[in-house]
Amino acid sequence: MRPAPSSSTRPTLALVGATGRFAEAIVSALALRDDVWGEIRLLAPGVTTRTLSVRGSEEPIEVLREGSFEGVDVALFNLSPEITPEWTARAVAAGAVVVDASAAHRTDPEVPLVVPGINTELVAQRPKGIIALPGPVTWGLIDAAHVLHQGWE
Description:
Blueprint: E1 13-16, H1 21-31, E2 40-44, E3 51-54, E4 57-60, E5 62-63, E6 74-77, H2 84-93, E7 97-100, E8 130-132, H3 136-152
Parallel strand pairs: 1-2, 1-6, 2-5, 6-7, 7-8
Antiparallel strand pairs: 3-4
């Protein structure tokens, strides 16, 4: 993927599992914010002919392979829990900070389970180089709890 201008001083982001709605949502969210990323790599475990629009350009989704994480600073994962540990280990070994949306690392006591806006400070405490995100049920409960909380303010 083509890097943004002056990408040499900006971090590289990898979207792992880029063929699903996860990657589409991340790319859409990135478009709403200041562009802080240099290169954005789109990766998937299988061969695909799909592309994804990033920064106004259709970009190919590359096959996840040995070496995919060289130079990556942050890797956002959304793979099946069965294959996630192998690939997150490779990303961490290459120097990336991993944010995992699968269930693979949620119960590991050495991997912080971070709920943005609730316990964001745990992002800095990642002995394995991995941050786990809660599952979809938790996100729904957080939204409901927020609405209820507003009713008591």
